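INTERNAL AUDIT FORM
Audit reference: QA-55
Scope: verify that the stored structure record matches its stored sequence.
Auditor: D.O.
Record contents follow.
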Amino acid sequence: MKDEMPEPVRAAVERARAAGFVYSCEPAVGRLLATLAAGVREGGRVLEIGTGAGVGLGWLVSGLLPRTDATVTTIERDPGRAGLGGDWPSFVDFRTGDALELLPGLGTYDLVFADAEAGKQMGLELTIAALNPRGVLVVDDMVPAPGTVWDAEFAGRQEAVRRTLLGHERLVAVDLPGHGSGIILATAQSA
């Protein structure tokens, strides 16, 4: 049945639950990631900034499978958390460290999912520079989770991200506040 979670997602959700990791990618955001990954060109490159327990990665992988001609690079600062193990396909490349230090040396990508403060609230220009022409950027967590209120400092940083993405000269972007955790989806026009 199409509404069920794909196996890479289900396995990552179980590992996240067992580890007590509560910041995983929401299903609405994940389905969008899988849909966009399915459209990545042959031999394309996908980047995730903020692996966490690997739920978002599971959605990206599920959108690419069964093909294995694309590569997925995923960056996680915490080596103990990077996907929490798991049996990932060989086309997934785990990088551990500071995204702001790693990004300049990684090249460019067709799809980027920015799911960490580094690469979103800090170093957003590095993330945008990592987009190929017509590359797609997904930034989530742009609205507070139900029942939560952001402090003024965090809300200000998120608003700066929003303004940058929606007003960037290289991007065509749309704010989708009602989708999952609130998404900004952007496409790069040129290098």
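Auditor finding: record pair retrieved intact. Residues 7-188 form a domain with the Rossmann fold fold (CATH 3.40.50.150).
Action required: none
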